[in-house]
Design goal:
By secondary structure, the protein is mainly α. It contains 23 helices and no strands. Helix content is 65%, strand content 0%.
Length: 480
Amino acid sequence: MSAELISILVLAVIFVVATTRSVNIGALAFAAAFGVGTLAAGFDAEKVFSGFPGDLFVVLVGVTYFFSIARANGTTDWLVHAGIRLVRGRVVLIPWVMFAVTGVLTAIGAVSPAAVAIIAPVAMGFAARYGIHPLLMGALVVHGAQAGGFSPISIYGTTVNSIVAREGLPGNEVALFAASLVVNVLIAGAVFVACGGMRLRGAREWDGDAGNGVAGEWPGGAGAGGAVPSGPGSASGPGPGSGSATGPGSGGTAAATRTRESTAVTGTASGYGPGAEPGTVRLNPARAATLTGLVLLVVAVLGFELDAGLTAIALAVVLAVIWPADSKEAVNGIAWPTVLLVCGMLTYVTVLEEMGTIEWAGEGVAAIGVPLVAALLFCYIGGFVSAFASSTGIIGALIPLVVPFLEKGEIGAVGMVAALSVSATVVDVSPFSTNGALVLASAEESGRDRLFRQLMIYGGVVTAAVPALVWLAMVVPGFG
């Protein structure tokens, strides 16, 4: 068996083990880089680590460190509730607020699972509270994260653009961002209509009839002959906003009897939970400085082409020095598992490149003889594997694998990279992926089994349909 085939089989084993044993794929990739590099290729340790992506390491650490401080001082909460105030409490727009806020968070550098972890509990609390279909709310949170996920300063965006630049492929940062944004907006719109989002028109947050007007959309809710599941603000269980005596949906007078004092919350650093009224999150100096820092980060990276990671670390350090209490635990909030994942996978991919595996695999795909079929196959591989494993890891592994295929010039590189990237991330609604699992964990316990089945079916539909559609829209026009 050739060394190239061994390295490919080891790559497959990495994904299988990571999926079935819940082991960080980056740690497995480091071990594989060591084992394959030394035993199959005869590399020494220095050559194995020559591919360690130091630039991406700094980006990942820097932006997640900054974002961790933003979370600790309540800036992310302020962004959520600024969005709620912007739509003046219209329930029909709340899912889109969650979509937009999650998208903004990932676009400015938040790791997708981190953004979903922050927004999903708030979003699913609103879903239970106002009878919004839980699949609708969860899907819009995840698709929102992916919609902003390929901005030039995002984790996905910087990862893909760095790989494209490193491999010498023609790239287009704006086209990549726009492709993901448009696809996810269209899918979110379809889910919104399919899950009854339009029936939420006319209902308003803090309306005295909110507990009854839309409750019928929740399975087993008031419209179905039962009580609306109590949200985090009810007396039926602890959680943010537990100061209210009764939860929405417990009677027609629940919202009317709730006072501002009874909606005080203690569940987050900023003093906000789904049981609080919009406006309870104040724009204090720390949050104002953090928002200013976010603007400066965008301007520095896009306007002056400064390194995103180093800029983010510098801004985070300034905030940490001025407000040490807010940032005391921020280092623990750095997405170390994602850092390990990306760095490990790209180190292993470099070993594959040095061994000649990338060129060998590309020639094998090209031997299919039908470039469009090969391109479609790559998209489906990315989508299927990513539904059960890490999207970042799949992107890091597959883009280098298609380089020899793209160098032949028959398939447009920009469209192929965009299609592959979208295929590998849009499937994160699967309950087996990190984002899907976070949504499931944030849902009401009583409806969790049903939501799991819905997410599994929906994830299967997305995995089966979207790769073919993005291939048709992004790859086929650039053929020839």
